[in-house]
Amino acid sequence: MEVVAAVWRSPTGRVGLILAVLLVCGALLAPLLPLWPPNRIDVAARLSPPSAVHWLGTDHLGRDLLSRCLFGARVALGLSLTVTGLAMVVGTVIGVGMAYAPRWAERAGLVVFDLIGAYPTVILALALVAIFGPGVNNLLVLITLVFVPQFGRIARAQTMSLRHRPFLEAEITLGASPARILFHHVLPNVLGPVIVLASMNIPFVITLEAGLSFLGFGIRPPLASWGSTLYDGFIYLDQSAWPAVTAGVALSLATLAFTLLGESLQGYLDPLRRSRA
Amino acid sequence: MSRTTADHDDTQATGPLVQLRGLDVDFAVGRGRVASALRRIDLDIAQNSIVGLVGESGSGKSTLAQALMGLLPSNAVFRNGEIRLRGRTVEPEALRGRSLSMVFQDPMNALHPVMRIGTQMIDAQRARFPKLRSGVLRQRAADMLRQVGIADPENRLEAYPHQLSGGMRQRVMIAMALLVEPDLLIADEPTTALDATIEAQIAELLRLSKQQFNGSILFVSHSLALVSELCDHVVVLYAGTIVERADVRSLFSHPAHPYTRALIACEPRHDDPPGLPMVSVPGDLPDPAALPPGCVFAPRCAHASERCHRENPVLAPLGAPSPGHLTACWHPQ
Amino acid sequence: MIRYVAWQAATMVAVLIGAIALLVVLTEFIPGDAASVLLGSRATPASIAALRSEMGLDLPVYQRIAMFVFNAARGDLGTDVISGRDIASQVFAVVPNTLVLAFSAILLAALVGVPIGVHAAARPDGFFDRLTAYISVGLISTPSFVIGILLLLVFSVRLGWTPVLGGGEGQGLLARLHHLILPALAIACGWVGYIARQIRASLLDVLGQDYIRTARAYGLPNRTIRYRYALKIAIIPVLSVLGIGIGDIIGKSVFVEIIFNRPGIGSLINESLQNRNYPVVQAGVLVVVFLFVAINAAIDIVFAWLDPRIRERLFRAESA
Predict the structure, then answer these.
(1) Whether complex ipTM tops 0.85
(2) Closest Cα of chain C to B169: distance in Å?
């Protein structure tokens, strides 16, 4: 697709794309690679620095860090991509729907969005997770809920601004059906900003998941998560830097990759943007 | 309002105030292409006169005005050219706000939206009168506002630009330009963005101001009507070259260059009979990045000869009866 | 102006009441119920019932919301069933710490970020500009708790330059600053990148505007143009983002307070969450929301003061 080509052309996009592809591949292939099982405990080898046996060292239970990082990638990427995709779809449907809905429904929707928006994202996620409990499935639903309003707002705003464009009115006079207008004209234009938002959202969700797991409210052990590895590394920081550093670097690389990707997508999809970096 | 002491060089008191020699300006338009905006501009502005600069959109009028002020945008390349004030070569950047001031085309955007008029007018004077205190500068601003016809100037100074009408904003800009007591005031299409009724008022304001201060005005416009009323001398610009220059009476009574003749013919007159077909010049401005060889107007000129397409004419006097009337044409009428 | 402030205050109150309602409604969903969860395994039906009535859990939802709002307005956030102290004093004891951290972070980010952005805009696409761009993206995308842990590792654990724990209570001002610097830096890093980029972009935009050209036409010195004329407009998007950023910063301070073992509302919320002490969590979250909304309102008011067009736009739209 020409989008990929455009992203490839920009230097930031290229780096982001390469990193992201590497990460996704690493995550997908992890179970197939000849790695130490991520949950294999070996107390004798705990907190060891990188060696020929353990390429990135071990954590406080002797688990191989390389393996935990790659398996952590599965969780982080899987969750963030799924959540963002879900929030995007649900939010867009709701947002576009609100633009066509009767006034009271739209108002009600906006009020709900504002209420959710009054909470700083992390705090809201924490509160929800505290109430409904941690674990991958809950996280999926809850974090999606947290981000739906943003997508809804953008989808609605775009739809509203499009509805009154002259070309749309011309189509209506020519007899185009509402469905055709919706799918052929409105949706493609709504998708632009929505996709940009989604791309900027992914790093946020990755960070959020890591943060929640860091606090113990996210992914439950023994599932590997960068956040919990980071926390364990933090506890044992004075004895070995490796768990914290590897998890931290993995996290940073993932967020960097998708941020760069998102930026170059934004540059491509929004031609009015004049600032480069 | 009379001028306070300025740096007069008495031996030059009778020569032209401003001289432009050999000005060339190009613009980099991306992907290595270069557009020529102005070519070999030679211009004299006499003391105490109003010189009109006319041409259609894209002829380079604004570029010329900006070059005089040193306000060319960053992608402009000022290739050659000398600007002389009273015989001495100058850098326009040093004279901005002192010997040179400018009134811009769109007064809405030309004033800072979030600062009060008074503050902006005081700041505008600082380059010219660095030793005067703010209170004094403010008083001068209020007086000048009154002079340009704004009622209740003290309160107006506290206003923000969006609280004033377009005509008033342009008066404020003129007031600012006059406050620094410039040798040359450049008015870059000051009436283009305004309604027709306001247009007349602003032109009248400029004429009155000119009577009171001893500098000169360069009046840039695409309106021949305004120029004919306001100016002493007229310079006609086409696609970055001066094609004709003369005092106003001579230009309008015997226009020599085919382009000037066409421009004059194009302006509808109030005494034209109804139903008269409108005159227009066929063709378009040439692409500034790919100019034709020879005379730049030749592709659209009804009288073009083979020589016109080959050789670029230079500005030459018509001789008697109008010695000051110059035109760049191989076949002046 | 007064009308604008009143409008902001009214909106604020409405949002707060809504937030309280949402929170109270949500606590309905706690599996088991709040009382039995708190009591844990020591619960007997009698003690659960007693706690429930003490916590007001047996009242209908709307009544609980009203009670909460009423009490909150009087500054009463309930009593902590575990420690017996009143929650409000617990919360308000730690809020200043978080606020100090948040504002230090913002100040640091602004002091560093704005000049960098201005400098980058002065020579666009130059070496400094490009370097700033790369470093900014790196800083923005790295999560603050990662930066925090790395800073802790380098400066406290390995180099021993800064203290590892605490907020330096009971010690002098200098000690408190010493304890403050790494946590503030951890939060500020991401924002420095953002502010620098935003300032650069807005400045470049503003510098191309006609009113800047007028200022140059009157010979105003470059420094005046950049800092008084251009920055005044360019800084507006940054300020507006800071409003939302407060929420982000408070969220980040949860992690940073844990990493650096500082007292603050983040630590309090986390601790109470770990202990399933929901009333304290509720109060803490509400105070955070209050701060968030209040600071946003304050920023909107500052905007209206800075840019008089905003005040008039609001009322024109209202009467339309």
Answers:
(1) no
(2) 13
